[in-house]
Amino acid sequence: MTNDNYNPEVGKPQMVLNKVAVIEGDITKQQVDAIVNAANEALMPGSGVCGAIHRAAGEGLWEECKKLNGCETGDAKITKGYKLPAKWVIHTVGPVWEGGSYGEDELLAGCYRRCLELAEQHNIRAIAFPAISTGVYAFPLERAAKIAVTEISSFLERNTSVEQVILVCFSKSAYDCYLRVMKEIS
Ligand code: ADP
């Protein structure tokens, strides 16, 4: 085994998960290359994390979003960060929870994949995610956290350009839930 990072005690999933941090905080304050916005299909400044990102970024973000022709559920689009500490905002549209049999899991997984693909294309090294779909869109938090951690770790196993992923939780209960899921998966 020539990989210097290889540690048989720890194993591959743990190596990957070492790049993932869970914090409780406000995503608009994160000093990373890109933050992810849990956006709506119209890419309009809405409520929740989306409203907070647009308020912190300023009018320029909405002006750029208007030119993007919206975004489909499960897909993502990138803009500049304007007044945010982050250089980029990656807007992704999570599914609205309708009970779980309408492809919600796969759509949510697609959000994480598309965001990370865009991050890689833009040489983004550090990226922060909110808990997409778990607010107004009512996706169950633990189920969403499992999808987030699974998709992020399988991306990090295949790609090396992204060096740090921060999962930003807006409440202590969300933070505790993410930590539980991280332990289960590692
Ligand atoms: P969605 O419509 O995708 O459900 P919401 O904005 O309603 O999006 O909620 C997504 C998640 O973002 C929720 O868990 C919510 O608590 C969280 N959230 C809201 N504001 C912030 C913020 N400023 N920073 C980080 N997370 C936030």
Q: Would you kindly provide a written description of the structure presented here, covering whatever features stand out?
A:
The protein is of the alpha/beta class. It has helices at about 10-15, 50-55, 60-65, 105-120, 140-160, 170-185; strands at about 20-25, 35-40, 75-80, 90, 125-130, 165-170. Strands 1-6-5-2-4-3 form a six-stranded mixed sheet, with helices on both faces. Helices cover about 40% and strands about 15% of the residues. The chain has one domain: Leucine Aminopeptidase, subunit E, domain 1, CATH 3.40.220.10. The two termini are about 20 Å apart. The protein binds adenosine-5'-diphosphate. The site of adenosine-5'-diphosphate has 20 residues, from helix 2.
- The stretches of 5 or more residues where confidence is low (pLDDT under 50) are 1-12
The total count of helices amounts to 6
- Total of domains: 1
Assign the CATH class: Alpha Beta
* Rg, alpha carbons: 16 Å
CATH architecture: 3-Layer(aba) Sandwich
> Helical proportion?
25-40%
The secondary structure category is alpha/beta
Cα end-to-end separation: 21 Å
How much is the average pLDDT?
A: 93
Supply the CATH superfamily name. Answer: Leucine Aminopeptidase, subunit E, domain 1
CATH topology: Leucine Aminopeptidase, subunit E, domain 1
Number of beta-strand segments? 6
The gross shape turns out to be globular
| β-strand amount | 15-25%
| Bound small molecules, deduplicated | adenosine-5'-diphosphate
Largest sheet: 6 strands, mixed
H/E element order: HEEHHEEHEHEH
User: Order of strands side by side in the largest beta sheet?
Assistant: 1-6-5-2-4-3
